[in-house]
Design brief:
The protein is 17% helix and 30% strand. The chain contains 11 helices and 32 strands.
């Protein structure tokens, strides 16, 4: 492709500047920047633009910045929601077609919009005044199409030629240089890349339902990132070259049944009395044939605690596939069906020390890296369970451990922390026997909002807030009475005045005791009125922090009913870092001011992460009534 030469204005005295000259002035600088961006950076994501699949099947695209194939910067200022089943035209408008099977690609495109309309005086005999846009907003459009995304990275044949073993073994003078080889196999050209930026691919149907693949995107790393990666690689070169690949401890990569909150794993264990386990390395047969020292199965319930005998099972694997270069085994345990009742939970644990007893079959004989903690059992409780005889004898006094064997953080695979040895513990429970911690579902005023009269929606927020200044949160279930009556130990608000890119005069706004309103599905709205009037300035920024962190005290935001655990609240709605937020919480002074919050929207996003406790912070802006 031939690239057009750049052309710019040449000025001389009394030159008449017409519209075309001003446009040429803009085009020159824009095209020069876009050309360098296109050829130097390429197409991809500069920051943000994370894509997640929601529970309703839609996609949430986070705010961020990207570069399209023509070198144009595409800015998405806020989070957006997209239905991947509704195909669009080239402008991002619904085309009327839907995708119920197969796959689609979600693209981000540069899109210009005229704005700031002004009257255009009539020309000649025309006496009608028309309107014309006096500004151009560089916006974006989101496309959903059937077109596949281009491949990411170098073509496979280029990588194979560059890193073929024959190159390392050949004589240097007989070899083509890497630079010359790369230029020949993948020559650079001036053609632009895809006009739009691929963000994600979505597949519909199949065993797994709707699946999301963000591997189709290219993330453009900064020079700082690339330098850090090079330095990291340099630090590890000796280790990578001196150690064989097998020097890594074996890890557990597959487990059947899988411990799930719906109770399917417990039902499968109760029906088949069988475990299947996969490893990423070949394992020594001694450990697999004698699992009792390192693998255990326990039944826990009211006045029930039995460690069941576990043996290696014969027959083929029905649920776990042996990984390439790895190993897999099945294990059986003996139990009478009548012993497993509705109140029974099953705990499975595996443990190893640096010396074994379950280890790899290679020369290094490294022990299993089993680290995976997914129950609420303490070290002492697990030690008492391991001390039980594996003969099915009931130790009723340990049955109380069942209430502690709650599902902790969601289990993950592969196991391990990178060192030989460790302990794995997971629990299989009936569906519905464990309640989630209370969760933060919504906040008002919404994070990232501006309370003014620029739109009907923001005007409504502005009027409702100024008529009765307050803070509202919605939680999934009721909180303890002490937390509701006194929010200061866990929920606080601050008022500050922006000046440029800094905030000054930060002061805490005291919140009164909450007013509770029970909504549908046990959710509760907590309304915290402001105790004192606020002196509103021309512009005002409000910061809110919700700290649901240990130690648990009488005023902590724990659930009113079991489980009495901390409120699950996790959202980073401002750009302030953790230490700055804690300093604000502790009453620290900021004589040089704070950075403006740059608050992001809390609407349409999860404000919890599935684990009890956490830190949530968000902000919103309020304009003084005489300034809107």
């Amino acid at each position: 492709m031939t690239t057009k030469a750049l052309q710019r204005n040449r000025f001389y005295p009394r030159k008449l500047m017409e519209v075309r000259h001003w446009q040429a002035e803009q085009v020159y600088h824009r095209r020069a920047r876009e050309l360098v961006t296109q050829l130097g950076l390429g197409t991809g994501v500069l920051c943000g633009l994370d894509v997640t699949l929601t529970g309703t099947g839609t996609l949430e695209i986070g705010c961020g910045v990207g570069v399209d194939g023509c070198g144009r910067i595409v800015v998405v200022p806020g989070d957006i929601e997209v239905d991947p089943r509704r195909l669009t035209d080239a402008c991002g408008r619904p085309s009327g077609e839907t995708a119920d099977d197969g796959g689609v690609t979600v693209w981000l495109c540069f899109h210009e919009c005229g704005t700031d309309l002004v009257p255009l005086p009539p020309e000649l005999c025309n006496d009608e005044v028309s309107c014309i846009a006096s500004m151009t907003r560089e916006a974006y459009a989101v496309l959903v199409t059937r077109d596949p995304a281009p491949p990411v990275g170098l073509p496979p044949e280029v990588c194979e030629a560059l890193f073929h073993p024959d190159r390392a073994a050949g004589e240097e003078e007989d070899q083509e240089s890497l630079h010359a080889l790369l230029d020949r196999l993948d020559p650079r050209n001036c053609a632009p890349g895809p006009v739009c930026i691929p963000l994600a691919a979505v597949e519909f149907g199949g065993y797994g339902g709707t699946t999301l693949d963000t591997g189709v995107r290219t993330v453009i790393r900064s020079n700082r990132n690339l330098l850090d990666l090079i330095l990291c690689l340099a630090d590890r070169v000796d280790n990578c070259c001196d150690k064989a690949p097998s020097a890594r401890p074996p890890r557990l990569t597959a487990l059947w049944p899988w411990p799930d909150p719906g109770g399917a794993g417990l039902r499968a264990l109760a029906a088949e009395h069988r475990l299947e386990v996969g490893f990423d390395r070949d394992m020594a047969e001694q450990g697999l044939d004698d699992p009792e020292p390192w693998l255990g199965v326990w039944l826990l319930g009211p006045r029930l605690a039995r460690r069941l005998p576990v043996t290696r099972a014969s027959g083929g694997l029905g649920y776990v596939t042996t990984p390439t270069g790895g190993d897999a085994a099945a294990f059986a345990f003996e139990v009478e069906p009548k012993v497993i009742r509705d109140s029974t939970v099953i705990v499975v644990m595996a443990r190893a020390t640096a010396s074994g007893p379950i280890r790899a079959a290679g020369p290094d004989q490294l022990a299993l890296d089993a680290e995976l903690a997914a129950t609420g059992l303490s070290i002492d409780q697990r030690a008492k369970l391991w001390a039980m005889a594996a003969d099915g004898t009931n130790v009723a006094s340990l049955g109380a451990f069942a209430k502690h064997a709650v599902q902790g953080p969601p289990p993950w695979l592969p196991s391990g922390d990178g060192t030989a040895g460790g302990e794995l513990h997971v629990v299989y429970r009936p569906a519905g026997t464990v309640r989630l911690p209370p969760q933060l579902l919504d906040v008002w005023p919404p994070g990232g909002s501006t309370l003014d009269q620029s739109t009907p929606e923001s005007a409504d927020l502005w009027q409702r807030f100024l008529k009765r200044p307050r803070l509202e949160i919605v939680v999934s279930r009721a909180l303890a009475a002490a937390a509701v009556a006194g929010p200061k130990p866990w929920l606080r608000m601050w008022h500050a005045t922006p000046d440029g890119d800094r905030l000054y005069a930060l002061r805490e706004v005291e919140l009164a005791a909450s007013e509770e309103e029970t909504l549908g599905d046990d959710t509760v709205r907590l309304t915290f009125p402001l105790r004192a009037d606020i002196e509103w300035f021309r512009q005002n920024e409000m910061l809110v922090q919700l700290r649901s962190t240990p130690p648990v005290a009488p005023g902590s935001p724990v659930g009113l009913r079991d489980p009495l655990v901390l409120l699950d609240a996790d959202v980073a709605g401002t750009r302030l870092d953790s230490q700055t937020l804690f300093t604000i919480w502790s009453g620290g002074a900021f004589p040089e001011g704070l950075p403006t919050l740059q608050a992001t929207s809390t609407q349409g996003r999860a404000l919890y992460d599935g684990v009890e406790g956490g830190l949530a912070h968000w902000g919103f802006r309020v304009l003084r009534p005489d300034q809107v």
